[in-house]
Amino acid sequence: MKAELLFGTWPYLAGALFVVGSLIRFVLMRKGARANHRDLPKVPPATSGNAAWRCGVLVLLLGHLAGLLLPGQILAWNSVPLRLYVLEGIAFAAGASALAGWAGIFWRRVWRSAGQAATQLADVCFFSLLFTNLVSGLLTAIAYRWASSWGATTLAPYFSSILKALPATALPGRLPFLVQLHVFSAFVLLAVFPFTSAFLLVAAVASRAIAPIFRQARAIATGGRAALEGAVRRLDPAAWIWPEEE
């Protein structure tokens, strides 16, 4: 029952919270909610910081995505011991770098933030969960070596089963507590992220990126409607059914 709840039900609830929360925050931004815009200049906690922090987080995200989406390629790479050592070393260094930058960012950007109370609370929760996720990941790497290999044979199939709406909860349910904590906290991070100040920055960048596409689509739609109205006027049968008297 515990595994079913944590790894069978919660991932879908987290995904729903992420989608709904993202839509709500994005709509509020688009409507120009002043409170959100006041927070925006003060909110780069998840994307600011030194280069080591940014590189560490980016490498971790790309590495985890590769392990979940390309497990066969990861196992093929790890079949050569030297390449396995290199991959594990890079992953551990990235995790250590991200953890080292966490404290400074938490203090400067979150704890001393002066934004809305609700956003501050979400930021504190998010970064506390991020700390849990980073620490559990590093401890897992130390206690249970070669995570990139056994993760490709256990966590990647579990992730695939979630996407197929047939969660194989037995796979993470048999893993050590540290691994379960790492997986569960990742889903909680996904659920909390839309309510943080960092999401406002991501949404603003995404909005600016897709704005030209919407403008072009609107122009095409307007031109198409004008062409359709012209065609309707030209083909209007009223001109020959009820000709005007001259």
Structural commentary:
With 246 residues, the protein is mainly alpha-helical. The protein has one domain (2-209): Transmembrane di-heme cytochromes, Chain C (Fumarate Reductase Cytochrome B subunit, Up-down Bundle), CATH 1.20.950. 81% of the residues lie in helices and 0% in strands. The chain has 11 helices and no strands. It has helices at residues 2-30, 34-39, 51-69, 71-78, 81-111, 117-143, 147-163, 170-173, 177-192, 197-234, 238-241. Helix 4 packs antiparallel against helix 7 (147-163), helix 5 (81-111) packs antiparallel against helix 6 and helix 6 (117-143) packs antiparallel against helix 9. Mean pLDDT is 80; it is low at 33-47.
Task: Output the keywords.
single chain; about 250 residues; mainly alpha; Fumarate Reductase Cytochrome B subunit; 11 helices
Note the topology:
Elements: H1 2-30, H2 34-39, H3 51-69, H4 71-78, H5 81-111, H6 117-143, H7 147-163, H8 170-173, H9 177-192, H10 197-234, H11 238-241
TL;DR of this structure?
It contains eleven helices and no strands.
Shape: globular
* Element order: H for helix, E for strand: HHHHHHHHHHH
Number of strands: 0
Strand content: under 5%
CATH level 4 superfamily = Transmembrane di-heme cytochromes, Chain C
Helix count, DSSP H or I runs of 4 or more residues: 11
What is the CA-atom radius of gyration, in angstroms? 25 Å
| Overall CATH architecture | Up-down Bundle
- CATH topology descriptor: Fumarate Reductase Cytochrome B subunit
